[in-house]
Amino acid sequence: MKLTPLFAGAFMLALAGTASAQTLTIATVNNGDMIRMQGLSSAFTEETGIELNWVVLEENTLRQNVTTDIATNGGQYDIMTIGTYEAPIWAKQGWLKPLDGLSADAEYDVDDLLPPIRDGLSVDGKLYAAPFYGESSFIMYRTDLMEKAGLTMPEAPTWEFIGEAARAMTDRANDINGICLRGKAGWGENMAFLTAMSNSFGARWFDENWTPQFDQPEWKATLDTYLSLMADAGPTGASSNGFNENLTLFQQGKCGMWIDATVAASFVTNPNDSTVADKVGFALAPDTGLGKRGNWLWAWSLAIPASSQNADAAEQFIGWATSKAYLEMVADKEGWANVPPGTRVSLYENPDYKAAAPFADMTLGSIYAADPTHPTVKPVPYVGVQFVAIPEFAGIATNVGQLFSAALAGQMSADDALAQAQDATTRDMTRAGYIK
Amino acid sequence: MATRQTRTLARTMMAPAVLVLFIWMIVPLVMTIWFSFQNYSLINPMMTGFAGWANYAYVIGDPSFTQALFNTLFLVGGVLLITVVGGTFLALLLDQPIWGQGILRILVISPFFVMPPVAALIWKNGFMHPGYGMLGHLWKAFGLQPVDWFAQYPLFSVIVIVAWQWLPFATLILLTALQSLSEEQREAAEMDGANAVNRFRYIILPHMARAITIVILIQTIFLLGIFAEIRVTTGGGPGYASTNIAFLVFRTGILSNDIGAGSAGGVVAVIIANIVAIFLMRAVGKNLDA
Lengths: 436, 290
What we know:
heterodimer; A: alpha/beta; nine-stranded mixed β-sheet; two-stranded antiparallel ribbon; 44% helix; globular; disordered N terminus; B: mainly alpha; 13 helices; 72% helix; 0% strand; flat; MetI-like_sf (chain B)
């Protein structure tokens, strides 16, 4: 088991050595927008003569694969698809090449990239990854059930209103849950939601000295609100529900509200997949009046590992795939609704796009409501809204996610989960050298 | 009777294969031991150098280590109990002359051909999911609230899935043993007036003892490292309720990218496996001496 990365690295180095200078190897995630880009990329090859070699992987496999490759300087890829979590960490470690060429290219128009997302992919003002597709989170709700409950959803609701509405909409006899939220353990699953939610309660992962904050009242308020909401109005088996499980529940008409990724809007309003397509409304993620909303910020982005021997060609491809021209090409061939969302200001000023995507304004509003450089009410030493951009976070948050998932499953109390989260995180942060 | 020459010849001819197998085993083991004493994190290049026993202290000091150890033993014990008892019962049934016996035997054995992650997915979504699963619908049909198996009984659920997969293996081995029992011996006991329970207790069970021992030994080796079923269904949770040692090593080494601590966990797992194996060999392996 321990030999595999070494052998794989050596093998890939040998491969990289023999590859043509004009062939780019691209690792990407198997989501719809990326698959479409792969299909359209022959236009790039025709234009430039640069051949493309695709490695398309499922999200978790991609993460493990590219992390191992970049950390061992494997050199397997010229372009990697990474998220807003990896980009600043890897850039600081010198693992990524800055995209200076794109930043200087007037036609590419780097200033057109949505500022919160551009900031999340930059270190010291330098762009290290170009966003291909971006998202925040917001509330999707059933307009008919809301009406039946005698309530009106404000555009920017509070958690108090969400609690009241969720309980009012719940109809267990008819299998309708007032609210569906993520409960499956994982840093990109329940902890993405709970970290974003905690921001709106004034909680934070660490204080300025990197001391974990799970023993503070703000986290207690966050977890108590979440647990009581799910106990009163959540679906059975919520501790194993992630994005996909909740999407299915909502599409089947079993959720009054669902707070999750903005990308889900097109799925729940698509009449081919959703039984409630014509009864969905959108609102900003809730707050508690402290100035931060409980929504996150994420972008699947393209970056060049420092080990790439074809950096210029790689930057050329990234420029092509994340350009305004690419958006127009997708719109031309597949319609505006299928354009990768959430990356460019100009897209949200385009009347054709706004007509095709009725949730466009709310998506943009949600993205702007998240500030990765100031994610919480109190000051923090880290960047990131629903994550902490330090290398150790994925492991630490997966562990904490397990504890919170156990609290949701009724296996332990909220107080025990918070106490154990505090101990485990302190232990890991001490080991990593943040706490002396 | 082998002469000294034939023994020497056999040893000489075996040597290359033994050497290759030895290297095959020893190189990864030595590397794992080496890494277990190093500060080595894939994602933190600042963690370098000799770590002493720090990685071991970190793994053994993990709040979930004791529970993982307990879960590992409980998982092995639970699956063994179900498969040995169930396998014996099924073997006895399948040994009866019935119509369609061949097809029935294939059906009983078929779960063994399903890959572990696939089996886990089928059980997770098809059977045990409180919303979509067959059991959920069954509970609802009787007016009961569906059970959220993986949240309320995570370790038990994993045991059921793993036992379902290993039951065919136990059945197959035990059935083979049963079929080697001489018919005359059974008939003689029957003629002497022994009832079914006594025939089972004094004739069949002692005859099957060696086969049961083999089932226990082979299964234990595999069950100590159960991973795919946990990864697919519970992810080791909720909390640490279904985390076994193998999953703890995965969580430390792969999810946290901490190769040093992961390797230390791997070495600890090897030591635990050996302790269990020695204990088993002493406790039940004596059946093989005969």
